[in-house]
Amino acid sequence: MKIVRLANFVMPRSGGLRTALRCLGEGYLAAGHEPVLIVPGAQMSDELTPHGRVITLPGPEVPGSGGYRLLITGRRRLTKLLDRLEPDHIEVSDRSTLRWTGRWARDRGVPSVMVSHESLAGLLTVWGVPESLRVGFADLANRRTARAYDKIVCTTAWAAAEFRRLGVDNLVEVPLGVDLETFHPSRRDPEVRARYAAGDEVLVVHCSRLSGEKHPEVAVDTVRALRTAGVPAVLVVVGDGPRREALGERAAGLPVRFLGFVADRYAVADLLACADVVVAPGPVETFGLAALEALACGTPVVVNAASALPEVVGTAGLAAAGTGVAFADGVLELLERPEARRRAAARARAEQFSWPAAVDGFLRAHGVPVGSSVC
């Protein structure tokens, strides 16, 4: 079966959506299907990869986004490409500018799935849209999305809530997974830890895109609050984005180290495994792969109570209000738990999320037989 997937807001080097698309593609291939991914980029390309065929179409960069691009120009060209590919199913990871593809699929009798990777109401909140406008706009857009596609896939109950509230009946929940081999407690190495923290210092790690919706400033404020309380905490930040310069200014005088984008995921796993606590302060995360990768490494996570992450981390982490002081309290509470117990609990929680299970869930959403899959 040929599954043509379309996605916007895919960073060229990193990001949770990029990871999900890669692992789902590998799983579809392993299950005997033919995945084709269409994404925007700086220039046209068409290549075969370990996760299937990837077609890149030129798309404009979103101003101030730090690299996000959109498939919003050349709808006629994209329509011709879809017609030429003749998919058996389509899977779309953008419910705004690509919603029209649901109509394209219905007109041609092609089964369609929309994957909701974000909370529209949550994003509108981050963008400062007044509640009086936010709720009505989100409801209208979500109703149109639900009508446009055969199935809507949400990765958490939190993400599904804005659809369930509207009585949407073509909704399914399918959690994403984590690479349990790459991200593993065995990667904990005292020599690696010594590069970032000395002696009894508390090593806090924040791993995400440095953009406004992720609230990375809370990570800096967490270390400030910890040190004010007399805790010798240090922070290592993995990732890059439009907030990088502002974060550097905010962190002046604090033991904060910015690593930028780290291409080697094994190096990221090494760092996550060596951390005492990872912080994930984004308030509109609908799943949070970086937090799950930390758990897989045996490291507990403090997450934003307003996001879907409390649902993902369970009792292996701790939910806090989105302030540095609240996150610092969360760090201290996690550190009060015996280390062996908190690390074992983190790993055990991550093991409930595998990519083979995620792939099978997505294939069921497509209404096709499932089989073995890998990432």
UniProtKB/TrEMBL annotation:
Lineage: superkingdom: Bacteria
Gene Ontology MF, one: glycosyltransferase activity
GO biological process, one term: carbohydrate derivative biosynthetic process
SUPFAM superfamilies per UniProt: UDP-Glycosyltransferase/glycogen phosphorylase
Start and end residues of each Glycosyltransferase subfamily 4-like N-terminal domain: 15-181
Name this polypeptide is given: GDP-mannose-dependent alpha-(1-6)-phosphatidylinositol dimannoside mannosyltransferase
Record key words, sorted: Glycosyltransferase, Transferase
